[in-house]
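Explain this fold:

***
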Amino acid sequence: MPALMATPPALPLSHARRAQSRSAATPAGLSLPAAIVVLVLVATSLRPGIVSMGPVLGQLRGEFHLSNAQASLLTAIPTLLMGLLAIPTPWLSRRFGRRRVVLSALVVLSLATLLRAAAASPGWLFVSTAGVGAGIAIAGALMAGFVKAHHPGRAALLMGVYAASLGLGSTVTAALTGPVAALSGGWRAATAIWAVPGLVAIATWLHASRSEDAQPRPERARPDPANRHPARLLRGWLVALYFAANNFLFFGLLAWLVPMSQSFGASAAQAGWMLAGFTTVFMLANPMPALWRTGPDRRWQIAGFAGAFLLGIGWLIAAPHAQGWLPIALLALGIGGSFSLGMTLPLDNAADADHANSWTSFVLAVGYGLGALGPLTLGLVSDRTHSFVPALWILAAAGVLKLVLAPFLYREQRRSSAQGAQHLREARSVACRRHPDLC
């Protein structure tokens, strides 16, 4: 009888062991180096379709007779779609699987890039640009879930790598599009070549997805009532607004830095190198938040990078016609570090891969949706005022908003998860005391 009475307490131990085995099996079969390779090659294909428009914007305006506001749509449309399509992307991932959805998005991106280079009318130019935006939007929205599923403990590192790779793609595109356009005699070849990174990303994703599919799927846990959708949380809206302000700055400068620099006295070649320098520093700044460790509280980092941007924009406002490399570098430093933080904050508040997709899709929807107003706003203001100086003040206002939000962007303390882990440890301790032979 005593032996029979002692049997039930062994159950918590088995539950604890099953929980541990499920936790260990949660990351898919990709090693950390393999996951980094996938992130780098996919991410480098997600910005050329947008960045390549800046260096050839003058040619496009001349050939299709576009105003500044119309030309800004070539950057604003993809950015807006990156916000709108982030909303249904988690559902698409659950319905069809992340592997198929990302693969389809990369195929659409590559085809649309090629079709845009063959555009014969403004309508076709904008439609194909929408295809570029759709591919970028869907693939990009699922990368955070990929990170959370494979290496959740390395979120800051991997999102820094992802953001730096976006910057790498932007930098190479900004540096090469202008010279290729000059050598080829037009913008078409200079924009068509950026379908190649998409093809590389497709091959990489196909190989990686085989490893992921070969791994047994973990049991799907019941939704935790504590894992509320970010749209129902004030912190969710604040994180999204922070990301939106940063995207407003990034895409606004991406579209108009070259024309702005030329209006302030730079030559076409100098303005092109200004853009390349901007994207280079942006890329180098992306991993800085992961290297500058401040613990789980990222508010000092958020304030520091916002301050760097404000220093740079203040410099330009004070002396727009004497702009040099240092203020441009400060702008890129502030935006680049903030971008990585904006991509990491949703993962700080997410409990698992599915919850990360919900957080990321919401933040991207608001962040890119409002961020699309950057190129459009700067284009409209420059059309109305015939000057880019008012645009600098608008950029400064967005930078101030990021600084104001910094104190409120602390990491959520997931008490329910901590309590659950404590209960498991207590159950294991009790079971081990009663059945030391099983431990």
In short: The chain has one domain: 34-214+230-415. Residues 155-184 form the longest helix (30 residues).
